[in-house]
Specification:
The chain has about 400 residues and is mostly helical. The protein is about 65% helix and about 0% strand. It has 3 domains: about 250 residues, Up-down Bundle (Rhopdopsin 7-helix transmembrane proteins); about 90 residues, no CATH class; about 60 residues, Arc Repressor Mutant, subunit A (Orthogonal Bundle). The termini are far apart.
């Protein structure tokens, strides 16, 4: 018999599948982030679907889908963290080593190959056993590693990633006082709170199962227990929240409003139609490449160069593009656009050009000989002599020592 509780789960499943489809196909402003969120929402929906099939006994009619989603469950914590990071840092693609986050999922696929290739009769027996005793879902349908341990690994990994989610939110939103991003911050905190609720439920259920391992009946003999209720409510509320926040589905336009209107002269506020379309959630092919109007570009360039001349932030080792955007109160993707299109440089090359110019100016000073080349490199902001030498040669065509020799010869 289907209860109100089950209807709630069905509603969550329906909204999650619709929402994940929209996340994968809409919102080109932040398509990379949306796809990460889409994986999370779809996987929780799949998890809820399997849960519903088990508690209603319907799994025995479709035994072939059991454990299909197991590797995806390992993706939830990783994709949740990467989603938070991509929104806060305005990332549009994976970093070089981000594939490492997906190793547990790949290993789970390999582990479950024996079960995946088992005959349908074996899968049917597993499904019948689980639908008759919910606790057996922790033990049946295993691969090389007992299924019970995957339940433990998943929630432990989830908690670890949750810690990093909260840390990056604290570091960027709270500690750095990210202004102008109130709506985005509210959503990211809401998302992380829901993730925490879900993993509290999952962790509690897994610990209870661990304590009662081998017992024919335990606190989880009712599939509608408090721990599972926490998971269901967390997942369903998250899906419903997204359903009523369509701007999240189409990409959060956090950056346009992050610069105070008082900071930009009125004559600079005439945004182009393409910029307005970003704010409104347009799905134009390349909104990030939309041109600024010339006045706004000049305003940003003047602000950037005045800041570098006055504060010399390039002398700080490890100075990042995010720190620069926060210092200038400039949208991160606007800053990237200015660097790429006005200066024709990446952030690393842009900041290194200032460092090299600083070094060359120091070499004009007679006191520079009190420094070693390594000391001069660190004074200008380079973290090591090797990176200094590589950058110096890139911008001058010679190594620092060769440059000095040529300089001395020219002075003779």
């Amino acid at each position: 018999m289907i209860s109100f509780y089950d209807i709630l789960v069905v509603g969550g499943i329906f909204t999650s599948f619709i929402t994940s489809a929209l996340l994968f196909t809409k919102g080109r402003y932040q398509l990379h982030a949306n796809r990460l969120l889409g994986i999370v929402i779809f996987t929780w929906g799949w998890y809820a679907l399997l849960y519903l099939l088990v508690i209603t006994g319907w799994l025995k009619f479709v035994p072939g889908i059991f454990r299909l989603g197991s590797p995806l469950y390992y993706l939830i914590p990783a994709c949740s963290y990467l989603y938070i990071r991509s929104i806060l840092l305005d990332e549009t693609k994976f970093r070089k080593y981000d594939w490492l986050h997906f190793i547990p999922a790949v290993l789970n696929v390999i582990d479950l190959l024996p079960f995946y290739f088992a005959d349908m009769e074996t899968k049917r027996l597993v499904a019948q056993t689980i639908t008759s005793n919910f606790n057996m879902s922790f033990q049946k349908g295993s691969g090389f590693i007992p299924a019970f341990w995957h339940f433990q690994f998943r929630w432990i990994i989830g908690v670890i990633y949750l810690v990093f989610q909260w840390l990056i939110l604290y570091r960027i939103v709270l500690r750095d006082g990210l202004k102008g991003f109130k709506e985005v911050a509210t959503w990211l905190f809401t998302f992380t709170i829901f993730c925490s609720i879900i993993y509290i439920g999952l962790g509690t259920m897994s610990v209870i199962a661990w304590i009662n391992l081998g017992s024919p009946a335990n606190a989880l003999s009712s599939a509608r227990s408090v721990p599972t209720l926490l998971q269901v409510l967390g997942f369903t509320c998250l899906s419903m929240y997204l359903f009523f926040k369509p701007h999240v589905l189409y990409g959060i336009p956090r950056s346009i409003y992050s610069v105070s209107c008082n900071e930009i002269p009125e004559s600079y506020n005439t945004a182009s139609e393409t910029e307005v379309s970003i704010v409104e959630g347009s799905t134009s092919d390349s909104p990030r490449e939309s041109p600024f109007n010339p006045e706004l570009m000049r305003f940003y360039v003047e602000k950037l160069e005045d800041y570098f001349d006055a504060e010399e932030p390039f002398r700080k080792q490890g100075f990042t593009v995010t720190e620069l955007a926060l210092a200038l109160k400039m949208p991160l993707h606007h800053l990237s656009y200015v660097l790429n299109h006005h200066y024709k440089q990446r952030f690393t090359d842009f900041i290194n050009s200032y460092r090299i110019n600083f070094v060359k100016q120091e070499m004009e000073n007679s006191n520079w000989r009190s420094y070693t080349l390594e000391g001069l490199a660190k004074k200008s902001g380079f973290s090591s002599r090797s990176t200094f030498s590589a950058a110096f040669k890139k911008f001058t065509g010679t190594s620092p020592s060769q440059y000095l020799l040529l300089k001395e010869k020219s002075q003779q």
